[in-house]
């Protein structure tokens, strides 16, 4: 029997928890974006050591399941004397993981920037950092916006895994309610619907942003 | 902190069993996912919208919700509608349904990439709809979508780790239970990461070789 009252009763709690899902995933994407930018700059730099570090980072964090990364940060950080709340460790791990994907996404964007533009900027006397933050990053983001939005939705989904290391967010709360009410089907379907809506909104916002960029480019 | 890798040797049988199960889940899940994807894409493109619309919804739903929640719905929610599956069966079904949605999108893009002129020509020659798919569209589109298919297959191998949450005894689950009985978390978890990493690198390298081979065939066909 499909029990709708349990859905209506638990919906406010689930929505409250979904705020944490959004906060955790957007925070990790923001941090991951910074890591990705740095790692991408390292990857495209002339220093072989920096290039190797970046390649190693990307290969590891894309090659190991996120769940395993989360377990490592949860169990192994205290072993080396780092005692942070599990939510901090989890967001850090999410950020490192998405950072690896964002590095690869941005690399495509950076490579698409015409070399003449960078040369011109250097001629005008802009410093290396200025060129990176004022010209390269904005352009690379514009080129790769669809992929970045997609990566953000992937992270919203991936954030469900941090429930496994005991961080309270949508999936974890859904688990708690499901085990206490014995109505797993209704609760998990509702949680799934909330994730679906969150990702729908992100995709929509991404499309809006994209069309705005296109308008600007056309002008 | 002590570091004692001998714990891994003491438990090598369990670890091997876990690895075998992980590979099994991955292969069976991927094969079923490919089958689902192909069927869904074909139905989406070649039937009316009453069939296509629910399938489009299925694809969007599987791509828009976390894999973990999908597993929970199948495994914990299944009994509510008479679907009482073992953790392993539920996990494999979940992986197949999840992968199937992504594969369907890839196949759909592939079908579209074959030029309509060829299909018209084939139809003019009196070749049946199914034969056109089999002999004209599939061989050409498979070459084009191979990198995307390989990429998704590699991604699915990582998703198998999530099955440990619904108590499937695959590699991640085995390693976790060894870790929690011996408290040797560092050794076991780092070993686990290395195994997945190696697996991913091997599979990715194999996929690249395959793509190159198929690409060579393409170049020859053109030249």
From TrEMBL, chain A:
Keyword Membrane: yes or no?
Answer: yes
Main subcellular location = membrane
Q: Which GO terms describe its biological process?
A: amino acid transport
Q: Where is the ABC transmembrane type-1 domain?
A: 18-206
Subcellular localization(s) per the UniProt record = Cell inner membrane; Cell membrane
Q: Name one GO molecular function term.
A: transmembrane transporter activity
List the PROSITE patterns. Answer: ABC_TM1
Keyword set includes Transcription: no
TM segments? 20-42, 54-75, 187-209
Family in the record? Belongs to the binding-protein-dependent transport system permease family. HisMQ subfamily.
The protein, known as: Amino acid ABC transporter permease
Q: What is the organism of origin for this protein? A: Ancylobacter mangrovi
Automatic annotation (TrEMBL), chain B:
Superkingdom: Bacteria
Is Cell membrane there in the keyword field? yes
Q: Where in the cell is it found?
A: Cell inner membrane; Cell membrane
GO CC list: ATP-binding cassette (ABC) transporter complex
Instruction: Tell me the GO BP annotations in alphabetical order.
Output: amino acid transport
Q: Does the keyword Secreted apply?
A: no
Membrane topology, record value:
Multi-pass membrane protein
What residue stretches are annotated with the ABC transmembrane type-1 domain?
19-204
Where are the membrane-spanning stretches? 20-43, 55-76, 88-111, 132-150
Please name the GO terms that the record assigns under molecular function.
transmembrane transporter activity
State the InterPro entries in the record. Answer: AA_ABC_transptr_permease_3TM, ArtM/GltK/GlnP/TcyL/YhdX-like, MetI-like, MetI-like_sf
Classification via Pfam families: BPD_transp_1
Keywords for the protein's UniProt record, in alphabetical order: Amino-acid transport, Cell membrane, Membrane, Transmembrane, Transmembrane helix, Transport
UniProt lists the family membership as follows:
Belongs to the binding-protein-dependent transport system permease family. HisMQ subfamily.
For this protein, the record's NCBIfam families field holds: HEQRo_perm_3TM (TIGR01726)
Put simply, this protein is called: Amino acid ABC transporter permease
- The scientific name of the source species is Ancylobacter mangrovi
Its taxonomic path starts at: Bacteria, Pseudomonadati, Pseudomonadota, Alphaproteobacteria, Hyphomicrobiales
């Amino acid at each position: 029997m499909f029990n709708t009252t349990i859905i209506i009763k638990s919906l406010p709690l689930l929505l409250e928890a979904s705020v944490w899902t959004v906060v955790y995933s957007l925070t990790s994407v923001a941090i991951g974006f910074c890591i990705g930018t740095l790692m991408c700059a390292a990857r495209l730099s002339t220093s072989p050591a920096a290039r190797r570090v970046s390649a190693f980072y990307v290969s590891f964090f894309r090659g190991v399941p996120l769940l395993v990364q989360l377990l490592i940060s949860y169990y192994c950080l205290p072993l080396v004397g780092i005692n942070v709340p599990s939510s901090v460790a989890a967001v850090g791990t999410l950020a490192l993981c998405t950072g690896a994907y964002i590095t690869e996404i941005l690399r495509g964007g950076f490579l698409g920037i015409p070399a003449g533009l960078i040369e011109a900027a250097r001629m005008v006397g802009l410093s290396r950092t200025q060129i990176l933050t004022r010209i390269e990053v904005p352009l690379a983001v514009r080129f790769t916006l669809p992929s970045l939005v997609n990566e953000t939705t992937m992270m919203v989904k991936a954030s469900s895994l941090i429930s496994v290391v005991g961080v309270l967010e949508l999936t974890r709360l859904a688990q708690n309610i499901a085990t206490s009410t014995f109505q797993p089907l209704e609760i998990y379907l509702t949680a799934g619907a909330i994730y679906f809506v969150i990702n729908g909104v992100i995709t929509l916002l991404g499309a809006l942003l994209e069309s705005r960029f296109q308008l600007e480019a056309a002008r | 902190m002590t570091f004692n890798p001998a714990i891994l040797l003491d438990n090598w049988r369990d670890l091997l069993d876990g690895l075998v199960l992980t590979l099994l889940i991955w292969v069976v899940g991927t094969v079923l996912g490919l089958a689902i994807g192909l069927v869904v894409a074909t139905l989406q493109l070649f039937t009316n919208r009453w069939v296509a619309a629910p399938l489009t919804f299925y694809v969007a739903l599987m791509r828009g919700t976390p894999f973990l929640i999908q597993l929970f719905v199948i495994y914990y929610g299944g009994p509510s509608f008479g679907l009482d599956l073992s953790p392993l069966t539920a996990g494999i079904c979940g992986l197949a349904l999840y992968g199937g949605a992504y594969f369907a999108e890839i196949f759909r893009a592939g079908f579209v990439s074959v030029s309509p002129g060829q299909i018209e020509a084939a139809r003019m020659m009196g070749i049946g709809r199914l034969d056109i798919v089999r002999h004209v569209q599939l061989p050409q589109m498979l070459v084009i979508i191979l990198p995307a298919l390989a990429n998704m297959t590699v991604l699915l191998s990582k998703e198998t780790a999530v099955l440990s949450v619904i108590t499937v005894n695959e590699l991640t689950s085995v390693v976790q239970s060894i870790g929690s009985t011996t408290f040797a978390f560092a050794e076991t978890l780092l070993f686990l990461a290395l195994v997945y990493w190696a697996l991913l690198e091997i599979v990715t390298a194999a996929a690249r070789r395959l793509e190159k081979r198929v690409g060579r065939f393409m170049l020859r066909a053109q030249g």
